[in-house]
Amino acid sequence: MIIKIPHKEKIYHCNLAKPIDISIPLGQVKCFYATDFEVKAYTSGNFVGAVKAGAPVNFFDVQMNPHGNGTHTEGLGHITEAQEAVNEVLKQYHFIAQVVSVEWTEIKNGDQVISYQKLQAACPEVLPDALVLRTLPNSKDKLTKDYSGTNPPYLEAEAISFLVEQGVQHLLLDLPSVDREVDEGKLLNHRLFWKVEGKTATAVARKNCTITELIFVPDEVKNGLYLLNIQIPSMPLDAAPSKPVLYELY
What we know:
Layout: E1 2-7, E2 10-15, E3 20-21, E4 38-41, E5 43-44, E6 47-48, E7 60-63, E8 72-74, H1 86-89, E9 94-103, E10 105-106, E11 112-114, H2 116-122, E12 130-136, E13 154-155, H3 157-165, E14 170-173, H4 188-194, E15 210-213, E16 224-231, E17 239-241, E18 243-248
Parallel strand pairs: 9-12, 11-13, 12-14, 14-15
Antiparallel strand pairs: 1-2, 3-18, 4-7, 5-6, 8-15, 8-17, 9-16, 10-11, 16-18
């Protein structure tokens, strides 16, 4: 199905029959020493909820941690006492998105960061509502890696401030977090992105904005404009496993 999408005084076409899934299945990656993703048949007495065990249906329990088991989308409830559910702050699901590729830079103490200078140079002069950040090198190890204790790359604070100034409301990236793995609980970049200083979201907070982490953008996906669909289950949590999907605009 071909649809037309107006954006910035131009009309783009989009083929909804050609989705590009940039999510990583739950359980393939891990970070922050999270509990492992696990599915197992529900058991009660002699009943085992698996067809192969003789049950009429498959009836499984799921154990997971959205932040540590795969692609997930989080809202500002991630850093507030109210723990606003992401399905309550994400009210729209389709956005115009810019895909950019940025190489990380090594700084002192072994840290690797996406710098403001490199991010700004990779972005067009005006950004749409969503930014999809592919970090370089783009190894397929990202699909199966355990990032726990590895001090993976993160974004420089000035880079986050730049995105906020540009009006980016939805940031998607192929890293475990926008912040340093161990940062003494400051979560500076999360706070900058959502404009939350303490434990409560005030009137200035960017309440409808989201961060999606642990995506994977294949090399064959070119930098440029796309239609983005963020799919999440209606979970009453600050984060939920998600399935971001891109559609090329032409």
